[in-house]
Amino acid sequence: MMKQKLILLFLIVLIVGYSCGNGDESNPPQPPPSSFNFTGLTVNGVNNGFSYMGVNTRPIVKLSFSKPIAQNTATQGILFKDAAGNDVPYTIAFENSNSILSIQPSMNLSYLTKYAVAATKNLTAEDQGKLLTPVVVELLTAYDSNDKFPAITDDELLTLVQKQTFKYFWDFAHPTSGLARERNTSGDLVTIGGSGFGAMSIVVGVQRNFISRQEALTRLTKMVDFLTTSGQKFHGAFPHWMNGNTGSVIPFSNKDDGADLVETSLLMQGLLVARQYFDGNSVEETALRNKINVLWNGVEWSWFRKNNENVLYWHWSPNYGWDMNMKIKGWNECLITYVLAASSPTYSVPKVAYDEGWASNGSMKNGTSYYQIPLPLGPAYGGPLFFAHYSFLGLDPNGLKDAYADYQTQVVNHTKINYQYCVTNPLNNYGYGSSCWGLTASDIPNGYTASSPTNDVGVIAPTAAVSSLPYTPTESMAALHFFYYKLGDKLWGNYGFYDSFSLKQAWFSNSYLAIDQGPMIVMIENYRSKLIWNLLMSCPEVKTGLVNLGFQSPKL
To answer: What is the pLDDT of residues 528-544, one digit of tens each?
Structure first.
C-alpha cells in the first residue's frame, strides 16, 4: 500500500511538472524592458554641446531619445532648476511619436542667470525602459540689453565717470594719512603707487571743479606731510604697502617688507604732477612744492643698482637684503621707473643702466604682428593693458621715441591688439566683442590675475578699455557706453565702475582697486585736455632725464 502511494505521488509530480513545462513553452516569461539612450538636443534650434550662453528668457530645449517616452513620467523625469537649486515651472510638448521632449519655462527667466535642464533616470519609455545615462543641459540667459540710465552726452558721461571715480580717492582716502587705500576693503592698508595715482586724480578734481584748489592743496599737504614724517622709507624709497595710521610697512609678501622702487616711482610721478600744477606764489603752494622736492630728491635711485650693476632692482629689505632679486627689465609697466631714475637731480642713473638693464640691449623688442598689427615691444600680444597705462599717465607717448620704439605706436598698437583679440574671441567667452573688451590685471572670481590674450580667464576689467581712451577713442567710447548703459545696474557703484566682471560666469565684482580706478580718471583727462601729460612733461628734471636716455619728443 505504501509503495502504491509513493508511485502515485511520483506520477502527480511528473504530471504537474509536465503541465508547467507545457505552459512555459506556450507562454514564455517576458524579458525585462531594455534601457534607452539620449540621442541629441537643441536649444532654440541650435546644437552646441551641453552648455549654452546668451539664450533668451523663454528658451526651448528639445531632448531626443532612442525610444518613445511615457508621458506620465516626464514631469518626474525632467528637472528645470536655477543656480540656487530652485524649481523652475515649465511645460513639455511631445514630438516625433513621443521620442522628442520640447521643454520651455512657463514664464520669463531672469537675465544673466544660470539654469540647468536635466533628464534623470526617473524618465521612462513607453515599454517601461529606463534612461541609461542622465543628461544635463546648462543655460546662461543673456544680459538685459535695455539701457539702465537715461542717455547723456559723451562729454557729460566722461565727466560723470571722472567725478564718481574721484570719490574713491577723495571720500574713501585714509582719514589719518590722506593716502589711497589699496581697495575698498583695506582698512588701514594704503598703497604707495595708488596714492601717486590719487595725487594726479586730485589735480583732475580741481581742473573739473569737483573740489576747490584750496581743498586739494590741504589734502595733498596732508599726504606729503605724512609721507615725510611718518612714512617708513629705505634709502628714500617707500614700501608697496604701509599702515595709513602709523606709516609702518605692511609686507606685500614674505620678503617684500622694505623698499619697492616701482611703487615709489608711481608715487613720485603723481607728486611731480602735483608740484607742477600747484605753481602759485602763496606760502602754502610754495611749501607743498618744497616738501615734494625733499621726498623726490631723497630717493636714492642709484643705490638700487646693487653695487653699480647696469640695472635697477625692484626690492630691498632691511631683513632680507636683495633676496627678492627682481631686476626691473622691460617691457612692462616700469618705463617710468627708469625715466625718473635718470631724471633725479641727486641720485641719477646712467644711460647704460637703461640700455643694458631695462632694454636688455634691445631684447625687449617684439616686432611681430598680431591681427596684422605690429607690436614694437614686449611679450606676445602685448601683455595686460596696464603696461600701456601706468608709465603713460604722466609720460606723453605722442611723438615719444628712442632707439627701441615709437611709444605712440607701442601703446596704440598694444591696445588695438587687445581689442582685436576680444573681438575675435578665440575662446568663445560670452559677451566679448567690439563693445565689451579689455584685458588687464584685476580681481577675478576667488582671486586676482593679470589678464591678457595669453592669460584669458573670461574676465573684463573696465579700466582696461576706459583708460585706453587716448589710444583708441572710438573703441573705448563704445566700451564705456556698454559698461554704463547696458551693465550699469550691476557694474556701476559709489566709486564708479566696479573692478571687473565676467558675463560667461554671470559674475560681477564688488571691489574697487586704487591702481585700477586712478588710471581711468587720469587717462580720460589726458584724452580730453592732455593735462596730466603736459604737467609731467613740463618738469625740467624729466626733460633732462628723457634727453639723457636718448628720447625724442615734441615736448623736449
So the answer is: 999 999 999 999 999 99
Which ranges in 299-402 belong to alpha helices (H)? 335-343, 351-352
Residue 143 and residue 324: Cα distance in Å, rounded? 45
pTM equals 0.92
Q: Using CA atoms, how far apart are residues 65 and 97, in angstroms rounded to an integer?
A: 11
Phi-psi region of 31 (alpha: psi -120 to 50; beta: other; left: phi over 0): beta
In 300-324, which positions are buried (b, 16+ CB within 10 angstroms) versus exposed (e)?
Answer: bbbbbbeeeebbbbbbbbeeeeeeb
**Residue with C-alpha cell 603696461?**
387
User: Around 135, how many Cα atoms within 13 Å sit in the side-chain half-sphere?
Assistant: 25
CA dihedral 460, 466, 472, 473 (to 10 degrees): 140
CATH for the 38-141 domain, from 2.60.40.3710, 3.30.1490.100, 1.20.120.450, 1.10.10.2840: 2.60.40.3710
Q: What is the spatial distance between Cα 315 and Cα 259, in angstroms, rounded to a whole number?
A: 5
Q: Which of 152, 153, 156 is nearest to 164 (CA)?
A: 156
At 499-530, the pLDDT tens digits run 999 999 999 999 999 999 999 999 999 999 99
